[in-house]
């Protein structure tokens, strides 16, 4: 058997419904509520209040059955709900790939942004339907919903990349993204405040 075949995943057709934000066949589904985002929003008091008042779903991720193992190429659709916590736009936890591998995000619907941080420099890609954001190896990445509708994007990533969420908790993402009259604005990163 060729080295490039990783049993038991066969060649497959995956149906992608951009409007519904679904992938068929569907694999694992992940839901992140406000309580799962501890230590990430700047205003801890506002975060505490949001957790106590309904603990809303901030984002969810649906994936296909392609496994997260080396040499496979998993895909997922993330939906970030619109909202802010003390003015800071709702976002994903953000992560670094321990193996420093690249990834692409394709905007599907809504208005979002891709915030990247290499430990020194930050980068921002305005994400809209049809835009591909490229995440080079070594850049931590977080997605932010800067609009008033759910923001959906498709991710395609190396199965062996891994997800290091602790790196972001420790190092931040370089900047924070807030709602403003102009839509969104950036503030230098600072740790969560009580
Ligand atoms: Fe990633």
Q: Key terms for this structure?
A:
39% strand; binds fe (ii) ion; Jelly Rolls; six-stranded antiparallel beta sheet; three-stranded antiparallel beta sheet; 194 residues; single chain; mainly beta
Structure notes:
- The protein is mainly beta and 194 residues long.
- It has a single domain (15-188), classed as Sandwich (Jelly Rolls).
- The chain is 8% helix and 39% strand.
- The chain has 2 helices and 15 strands.
- The protein has helices at residues 44-52, 165-171, and strands at residues 15-17, 22-24, 29-33, 57-63, 75-80, 84-85, 88-89, 103-109, 112-117, 122-127, 132-135, 140-145, 151-156, 175-180, 183-188.
- A 6-stranded antiparallel β-sheet has the order 3-4-5-13-8-11, with no helix packed on it. It has a 3-stranded antiparallel β-sheet with strand order 10-9-12, with no helix packed on it. A two-stranded antiparallel sheet has the order 1-2.
- A hairpin with a 4-residue loop joins strand 1 (15-17) and strand 2.
- The longest helix is centred in the N-terminal third of the chain and has 9 residues, at 44-52.
- The model has no long low-confidence stretch (mean pLDDT 94).
- Bound molecules: fe (ii) ion.
- Fe (ii) ion is lined by residues 95, 97, 103, 141, 157.
Task: Produce a short descriptive summary.
This protein is mostly beta strands and 194 residues long. Helix content is 8%, strand content 39%.
């Amino acid at each position: 058997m060729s080295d490039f075949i990783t049993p038991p995943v066969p060649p497959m057709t995956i149906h992608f419904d951009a409007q519904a934000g679904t992938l068929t066949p569907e694999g694992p589904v992940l839901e992140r509520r406000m309580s799962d985002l501890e230590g990430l929003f700047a205003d801890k008091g506002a975060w505490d209040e949001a957790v106590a008042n309904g603990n809303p779903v901030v984002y969810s991720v649906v994936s296909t059955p392609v496994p997260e193992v080396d040499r496979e190429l998993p895909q997922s659709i993330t939906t970030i709900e619109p909202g802010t916590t003390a003015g800071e736009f709702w976002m994903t936890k953000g992560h670094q790939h321990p193996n420093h591998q690249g990834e692409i995000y394709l905007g599907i619907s809504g208005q979002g942004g891709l915030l990247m941080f290499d430990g020194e420099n930050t980068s921002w890609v305005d994400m809209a339907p049809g835009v591909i954001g490229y995440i080079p190896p070594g850049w931590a990445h977080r997605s932010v919903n800067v609009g008033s509708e759910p923001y959906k994007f498709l991710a395609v990533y190396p199965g062996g990349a891994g997800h290091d969420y602790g790196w972001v908790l420790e190092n931040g993402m370089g900047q924070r993204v807030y709602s403003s009259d102009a839509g969104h604005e950036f503030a230098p990163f600072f740790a969560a405040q009580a």
